[in-house]
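Exercise 7.
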Amino acid sequence: MKHNIIKIAVAGVLLSMTASCSDFLNRPTVDTYNVDNFYENDEQCIQGVNYLYNSPWYDFLRGFIWVGEVMPGNLYLGESQYLDLSVNGTDSDLVAMSNSLWSVNGHANTVIRNILDSEGPSQAVKNQCIGEALTWKAFAYFFLVRIFGEVPIIHDNIEVLNSGEYNNVRKATRANIYEYIIMTLEKAMTLLPRTGAESGGRIDYYAAEALLSKVYLTKAGLSGQISADDMAKAAEYSWDVIQNSGRDLMDEYSDLFRLQHNVNEECMISWQWSPSREPWTQQNSFQSEVAMIGFSDFDNCWGGWRGPTIDLQDDFGVSATDNPQDRLNETDKRRKATMMMAGDKYDYFWTDKGGFDYLRFVFDTEYGKGGPSGQYQSPTGANVVKHLTGRQADHVAGLGVTAMSQATGLATHLLRFADVLLIYAEAMTGTAGETSDQTALEAFNKVHRRAGYSEEDDVQAPLTIERIWKERRLELALEGDYWYDFVRRSYYDVDAVIDEIKGQRRNRWFGLETIYEPYYESGYETWTVDETQVRYEDEVPAPNVTPGSFTLPLPAEDIVFNPHLAEPAVEVNVREMYKYDF
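Solution. The predicted structure, written as tokens, is:
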């Protein structure tokens, strides 16, 4: 069955609300729920919004990584339309991500309408829940505008459906959409509590404000030149979060991505998943997409042939052909927490087996039973670490419950305090592209130090935009964000962005197994690289990047249902046409 972007946004709203094993994700059960007998008290009101933290987003999972990390050159995906930037409107993952984002908008609109019509809950809880729904709505549009560019603004799905005009909606301009996102977040902030670090994983005022700062930073170059006013707004909002939210960086970078830290003081907006498949869509399936076969207890991992790119390794200052002994004392702890390479061992994976040894897993068929069985798969000399939970023992230790096939409970963090610090540092560069402001330097260096660098390694004035861009890549690698840095830069500096992508090392290595297997068999002592057998695939050309590459096509099926989506966008007065009168 095909859907257009309006119908998909309201389909199955009630059916998506079912029981979860986590208190945070408690929901009404489907056999007792309907709008008339629900939303009768504060607890039910909160349950009614909980599912916005996972289910409607599920079909965006692949697109989240394929667009966010494969397209910008952080993750190798083989012969993929996302790797060579040739995605078309019939691609199944593109269709799924579009449907998912429109679904988030529709579900959020429906939840808001239901809460407004309810009489039992307290006003404070109603405000909180509506504010959370508005923030998720704004986040969905933030993804939509950065992925597809011009899209329609669907302020109230039921109103549009009742009008019969759902196949006649027009696209709005990018500027209109950014204004709509800003307006939505501003309204959310008037409703949300300022709970800060005590939010318990829920969206609060400072989470919405942090997202608003990122929206202004992204929008700043939309006109073709960097807007000093937008940069000032980004600085103002991010600074308020830094000063007043009570948020801080976690001490250990790798802890951010462990089950026991699903809710923590650094992560401000996260998808909170349940390790259950009843119903399908409330679970995290990332491990299946990026882990090597045999990494979990289930036969459900197929990501061994995908790996962090050589270009990302270059920025971390490592190489798949370098002796792993040279990395034993590497400074930047983010590398190992992001990608596993020859010689790496992890005490937080396979805890029931004494830890996880990367090369032993590949070449020891007893230890890695059900795994690669001696075949080194990664085309880049690395495999993904983020988004992994490991075996059942690891999942039970982290959450107290077992995982299921293609279903873990690991949270996916979308906006972290570290990002806010880097947003502030970049916003303070204004239109000059550099700054000597001490607060900006301190914000930047706080992130840099947590990575493992000492105060002696602090970046000194002037702090340049180029240095911030690199730090953002290393800090947020494989978290679904890197492409959007290219998108926002393409608004005002597209030639430089094209040159950067064309200059990346996005291809694969050949012959790495001739280094790694003898190294493992020698007990990690003998490292020999035969350059006649090990080579980089340099004959594959760089992707054909053009200014149009930074906007993906709308799904072809949406255009079939509504040909107006193929027409130029229409300018609208957002604040006059769309209002939140509550």
